[in-house]
């Protein structure tokens, strides 16, 4: 039977979000109803609200989520009622051309719930990243649920569902950082600081954190594992590149990570590499930016330039591992939680995010 819960929607482009009644349908054969315990406020949710991702309003926002499985469809085998899970938006299908060749992290046909959540008048909602979890409950495919250690704080665990996994995965998986290498990370929001923490976990011995905001560069060194930092406010692209080179014996870093996705940080990351160094782009660019560099620079510098989708993660492998590392005090997952808020505070949290006052606001449900 269907259920009615409270949730946060974006009704039209640019309008403030609103809390309203959401109808959760009875789960289909492979669907799961999850009682949401905590959901992080991600920049992607703001992008949905502003129409920067697609124009399929109204959206049910929220996707960085931990909760407990409450109800399962008749064919569900992956999870059971009572399981503590983190939700993911790359539930691999196992059948597409990527999956058939063993490249499941690039699955082209990820699973979502078979039924639509709606407003009370029947209007179908588009869930953010196929999840839609700024709500007391949500409906997802069983493959979107990853079981993790139930001793973890839901506010911390849920952040692995998107931004933190994207950042740490960009360092560990896409960048393939090796012990003893040097790393430079450009942009220190949640994704960038997660990349810094990932570089430290991977054994990098020189980790340079770069941001306009001195508060963030200090946090990178004091909390997340950076060995050096550059507060780049007022500096040109070339000045930042030169500073990174000075910190790496004139050579440039072995691995650079653009965690913003704008042209200046892309240029800084590209030209701050050592010869044959590896650059990772995990920051999401807008729809109109174009990368324009001399072709000889792409050829002559060698190495690689890679985008990182979801940190090239495999949720079933990576989510439990990083939860366990946090519980062992080996990964600072809990330090990304800046504040705990109610479902009524999402719009205000977007303003805090834009000002750079928080790493993650997390909506916590009783």
Automatic annotation (TrEMBL):
Pfam families recorded: ADH_N (PF08240), ADH_zinc_N (PF00107)
Cofactor: Zn(2+)
Sequence ranges assigned to domain Enoyl reductase (ER) in this UniProt record: 14-363
Gene Ontology MF annotations: mycothiol-dependent formaldehyde dehydrogenase activity
Enzyme class: oxidoreductase
Alphabetic keyword roster: Metal-binding, NAD, Oxidoreductase, Zinc
E.C. code: 1.1.1.306
Family classification: Belongs to the zinc-containing alcohol dehydrogenase family.
Name the UniProt record assigns to this protein: S-(Hydroxymethyl)mycothiol dehydrogenase
């Amino acid at each position: 039977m269907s259920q009615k819960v409270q949730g946060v929607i974006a009704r039209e482009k640019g309008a403030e979000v609103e809390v309203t009644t959401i109808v959760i349908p009875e789960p289909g054969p492979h669907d799961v109803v999850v009682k949401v315990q905590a959901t992080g406020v991600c920049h992607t949710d703001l992008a949905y609200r502003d129409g920067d991702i697609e124009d399929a309003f109204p959206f049910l926002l929220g996707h960085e989520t931990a909760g407990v499985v409450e109800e399962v469809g008749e064919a569900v085998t992956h999870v059971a009622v009572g399981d503590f899970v983190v939700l993911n938006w790359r539930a691999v299908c196992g059948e597409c051309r990527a999956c058939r060749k063993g490249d499941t992290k690039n699955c082209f046909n990820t699973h979502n719930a078979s039924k639509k959540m709606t407003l009370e008048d029947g209007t179908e909602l588009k869930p953010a990243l196929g999840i839609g979890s700024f709500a007391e409950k949500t409906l997802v495919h069983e493959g979107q649920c990853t079981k993790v250690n139930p001793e973890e704080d839901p506010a911390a665990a849920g952040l692995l569902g998107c931004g933190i996994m994207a950042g740490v995965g960009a360092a560990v998986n896409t960048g393939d950082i090796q012990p003893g290498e040097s790393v430079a990370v450009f942009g220190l929001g949640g994704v960038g600081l997660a990349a810094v923490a990932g570089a430290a976990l991977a054994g990098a011995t020189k980790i340079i954190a770069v941001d306009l905001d001195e508060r963030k560069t200090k946090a990178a060194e004091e909390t997340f594992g950076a060995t050096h930092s550059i507060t780049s406010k007022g500096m040109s692209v070339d000045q930042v590149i030169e500073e990174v080179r000075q910190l790496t014996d004139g050579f440039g870093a072995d691995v650079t990570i653009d965690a913003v996705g704008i042209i200046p940080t892309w240029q800084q990351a590209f030209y701050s590499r050592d010869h044959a160094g590896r650059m990772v782009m995990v920051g999401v660019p807008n729809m109109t930016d174009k990368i324009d560099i001399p072709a000889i620079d792409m050829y002559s510098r060698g190495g690689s330039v890679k985008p990182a989708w979801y940190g090239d993660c495999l949720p079933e492998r990576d989510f439990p591992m990083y939860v366990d590392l946090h519980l062992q005090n080996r990964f600072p997952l809990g330090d990304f939680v800046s504040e705990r808020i109610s479902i009524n505070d999402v719009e205000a949290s977007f303003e805090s995010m834009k000002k750079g006052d928080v790493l993650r606001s997390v909506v916590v449900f009783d």
